[in-house]
């Protein structure tokens, strides 16, 4: 399958297990800090894997000791965050900025709308954009050395590509969310697990990747109709009331219940064997 995808400039995409893809940010000399071409490329990769029939789950890591230091501030200072010395009408400047921010938001949202579950593995420095990406992912795992923070107030802006909209829905302790977002203080793996931001903590990056692959492998063995439908319905229900969620689930399953995967799963249980499912 690897030969079916192009090579990417800023990411490594590999397939460590059947039906499992591994996205690795590949800019270790810059602590995997992101600049515009990177987030555009990430969206392209996630959108491609989202509909690829040979992918059922995805893990996401960073090369080297850091997951990501966040936004490449030097690059941003020469682009998106650069002072506007022109005499452009402020309203027109605002329209341009809004479009730019919306495009960046969409690149992060690609993880959330991806049809396949994404397991993100935070390790080492995991600042700013790391929290945006993690909040948009489905499962969060980290290594014991992970150092996380919502960094944006330290560079004079409110986080604008997902954290402020998603973190409070991931973590039930809303006061904690406000504190870390307004102070930009660093928090560690133990605190992240305590408030429910991460599912599990492993001793080091290697162990965290192994743990992430185990979860991804379990998901990949299930019916893709069931797993992908479950992600869609959970995300929908999170953002709607219970009655809306029930109605949408009913409409969704009126089609999905017709899958042959149900019979395959039931028969394999009776026959005490591992079921296999067609590609989706």
From TrEMBL:
UniProt keyword list: Acetylation, Fatty acid metabolism, Isomerase, Lipid metabolism, Peroxisome
Pathway listed: Lipid metabolism; fatty acid beta-oxidation
GO biological process: fatty acid beta-oxidation
Domain of life: Eukaryota
Location in the cell: Peroxisome
Gene Ontology annotations for the cellular component aspect, listed alphabetically: mitochondrion; peroxisome
Chief location: other
Entries under CDD domains matching the protein: crotonase-like (cd06558)
Molecular functions per Gene Ontology: delta(3,5)-delta(2,4)-dienoyl-CoA isomerase activity
Gene3D superfamilies: 2-enoyl-CoA Hydratase, Chain A, domain 1, Lyase 2-enoyl-coa Hydratase, Chain A, domain 2
Pfam family, one: ECH_1
Family, per entry: Belongs to the enoyl-CoA hydratase/isomerase family.
Name of the protein: Enoyl-CoA hydratase
Organism name: Helicocarpus griseus UAMH5409
């Amino acid at each position: 399958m690897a030969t079916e995808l192009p090579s990417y400039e800023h990411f490594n995409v590999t397939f460590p297990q059947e039906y499992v893809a591994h996205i690795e940010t590949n800019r270790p000399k810059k602590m995997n800090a992101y600049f515009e071409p990177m987030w555009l490329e990430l969206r392209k990769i996630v959108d491609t894997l989202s509909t690829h029939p040979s992918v059922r789950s995805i893990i996401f890591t960073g090369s080297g000791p850091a997951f990501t230091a966040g936004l490449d501030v030097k690059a941003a200072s020469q682009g998106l965050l650069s002072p506007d010395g022109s005499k452009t009408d402020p309203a027109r400047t605002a329209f341009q900025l809004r479009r730019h921010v919306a495009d960046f938001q969409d690149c992060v949202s690609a993880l959330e709308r991806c049809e396949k579950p994404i397991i993100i593995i935070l390790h080492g420095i995991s600042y700013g954009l790391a929290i945006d990406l993690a909040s948009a992912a489905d499962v969060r795992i980290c290594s014991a050395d992970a150092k996380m923070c919502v960094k944006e107030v330290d560079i004079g802006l409110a986080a604008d590509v997902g954290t402020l909209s998603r973190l409070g829905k991931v973590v039930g302790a809303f006061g904690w969310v406000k504190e870390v977002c307004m102070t930009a203080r660093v928090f560690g793996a133990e605190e992240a697990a305590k408030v429910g931001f991460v599912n599990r903590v492993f001793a080091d990056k290697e162990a965290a990747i192994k743990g992430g692959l185990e979860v991804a492998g379990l998901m990949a063995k299930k019916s893709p109709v069931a797993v992908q439908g479950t992600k869609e319905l959970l995300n929908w229900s999170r953002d709607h009331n219970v009655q809306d969620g029930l109605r949408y689930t009913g409409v969704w399953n009126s089609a999905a219940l017709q899958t042959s995967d149900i019979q395959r799963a039931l028969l394999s249980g009776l026959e005490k064997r591992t079921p296999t499912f067609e590609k989706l």
